[in-house]
Design goal:
alpha+beta; two-stranded antiparallel ribbon; 2 helices; 2 strands
């Protein structure tokens, strides 16, 4: 009720994010609720959505490049890379050659250098 005693305004609202607005199925204000105020009780019915499981990318592990500081590891890496490069076909399209080179680098790095061991600092 307004100060003049005659006008009634709706002053009770529910604020939601725009993306969540479709979750409200029913919204109602109850005028009969006595609260010694000019506000009324507001009720909203929401539909609950179970979040979908996200198929995320697998995190790529880091190659231990610090091992390349040792001369014998460098020689082994270079030898295996040369063997793999020689074994690839030379008369294929450039895109396929690039993909093959990437695979060879990854395989050789995995075999010779291995992965970085992460310290679990949360324990």
């Amino acid at each position: 009720m307004s100060p003049d005693g005659n006008t009634v305004n709706q002053i009770d609202h529910i604020l939601v994010e725009r993306r969540d607005a479709q979750l409200i199925t029913r919204l109602r204000s109850y005028r009969g609720a006595e609260a010694n105020s000019d506000h009324f009780l507001v009720r909203a019915d929401l539909k609950q959505e179970i979040p979908k499981k996200k198929e995320g990318k697998k995190t790529q592990r880091d190659i231990n490049v610090n091992k390349l500081k040792k001369a014998e590891v460098q020689q082994e890496y270079e030898q295996k890379m040369n063997e793999r490069i020689r074994s690839t076909e030379q008369d294929i399209p450039i895109e396929e050659r690039w993909e093959e080179l990437q695979k060879n680098i990854w395989k050789t790095s995995k075999e010779v250098l291995g992965f970085v061991k992460k310290d679990n600092k949360n324990i």
